[in-house]
Design brief:
Layout (H helix, E strand, L loop, with lengths): L1 H8 L3 H20 L3 E2 L5 H11 L6 E5 L9 E5 L9 H4 E7 L7 H9 L8 E6 L3 E7 L3 H7 L2 E2 L2 E2 L3 E3 L11 E8 L4 H9 L3 H9 L3 E3 L2 E2 L12 E4 L3 E11 L5 E8 L1
Antiparallel strand pairs: 1-3, 2-3, 4-6, 4-9, 5-6, 7-8, 10-15, 11-12, 11-13, 13-14, 14-15
């Protein structure tokens, strides 16, 4: 395990916490000879968890977000070979509630759930449609949410569980945005999306208002690439799709999706 110790030594303090949790989960699965499931992980946390798992060569694992379009994923760890599909509902649930006539966003739903004292890591992706909402979560909190989540905003809701295995096609709603920027640096794209000056966007980033691929980012000169997902506090959550062209002044035309 010297290589693992060496890897841990090079992690920052936040990443080291994720790594230690994953090691504990693996060791519990092996020690108890039982299947275990992690909480939901951001993209960055998932990369760290997979790196840790690679040091345990005889441990099998399965990554799932329930929906194939999920951004937050969890890891099921097996101390022995087996098919993961039948046991997914043992660890995860999907809830649904009708919101006909209401205009809600992801923040409204997440805020109402977390106000019950639930840790963010227990909640997976939240899919908000025009008249209904789907929330992926750990099964261990299902009963608590069912009994205690009574309102989203000012609207009363009735929570019901739906079939986990029928939720694999849930997807996000997006708004397409096109911006013209001089650089793919995150401060340049933030300025374009927030309609503010480059200086103000740098201040936002240095103040901790930016998350890139699930991790807080304070680096104003980070270059974004296709597939990157980033959120700007009070502005929204976005995905960089592609650089679709270049203007006569050699600026980049960037296609971006904004999560609704």
């Amino acid at each position: 395990m010297k290589d693992l110790i060496h890897y841990m030594d090079h992690l920052d303090s936040e990443s080291r916490i994720i790594a230690k949790r994953m090691i504990d989960l693996i060791e519990n699965a092996i020690g108890d000879n039982q299947v275990k499931a992690s909480d939901f992980l951001s993209q960055q946390e998932l990369l760290i968890a997979q790196s840790i798992l690679n040091y345990f060569k005889y441990t099998s694992y399965y990554i799932t977000g329930i929906s194939k379009n999920a951004l937050r994923q969890a890891i099921i760890i097996f101390p022995f070979e087996m098919d993961a599909s039948p046991i997914i509902p043992d660890f995860f649930s999907v809830i649904h509630f009708d919101m006909t006539g209401e205009s809600l966003n992801h923040r409204d739903v997440l805020g109402s759930i977390m106000s019950l004292g639930i840790n963010r890591s227990k909640i997976g992706d939240i899919f908000v449609y025009e008249n209904e909402v789907f929330v992926i979560l750990k099964r261990e909190i299902l009963l608590y949410i069912t009994n205690n989540l009574e309102k989203i905003g000012n609207r009363s809701v009735e929570v019901r569980e739906i079939d986990v295995m029928q939720s694999q096609t849930l997807d996000y709603q997006y708004k397409k945005i096109k911006v013209i920027v001089s650089s793919l640096r995150v401060d340049s794209i933030t300025a374009a999306l927030a309609h503010i000056s480059r200086g103000k966007s740098i201040h936002m980033i240095e103040s901790g208002d930016l998350k890139l691929n699930g991790k807080q980012s304070y680096e104003k000169n980070t270059l974004l690439k296709e597939g990157d997902i980033f959120s700007i506090r009070k502005i929204g959550k976005f995905k960089l799709v592609e650089v679709s062209g270049v203007t006569k002044k050699n600026n980049s035309i960037v296609e971006i999706l904004q999560f609704i």
